[in-house]
Amino acid sequence: MFDDHFEAWVHGPVILRLYAEYADYGFGSIDEKPDVPVFTEDVENVLEQVWDIYGKYSANELESMTHQEDPWINARKGLSPLQKGKNTISDKDIFDYYIKQAG
């Protein structure tokens, strides 16, 4: 869907480009309508499934969930819990983890 990689920040996975684009909103609602790319039907179906599963959770709940998942944990190895870091979360770790979860 995109070429960016996730970084394992203290509060969870971050895509730096998106963070920079929306950082001015802070904890407020994002009222700007983004340019939405055209996705294939398969990608749209996956995105809908992700929303159906995770869309009901708050930001704090999602943060807590990411802190329990292997891809984020692996990328944060060697860092203390509140230590800033920009370690990349391995695409392979993400793929393997969610394939296992779908199991």
Automatic annotation (TrEMBL):
<dbReference type="InterPro" id="IPR025272">
    <property type="entry name" value="SocA_Panacea"/>
</dbReference>
<dbReference type="Pfam" id="PF13274">
    <property type="entry name" value="SocA_Panacea"/>
</dbReference>
<feature type="domain" description="Antitoxin SocA-like Panacea">
    <location>
        <begin position="1"/>
        <end position="72"/>
    </location>
</feature>
<protein>
    <recommendedName>
        <fullName>Antitoxin SocA-like Panacea domain-containing protein</fullName>
    </recommendedName>
</protein>
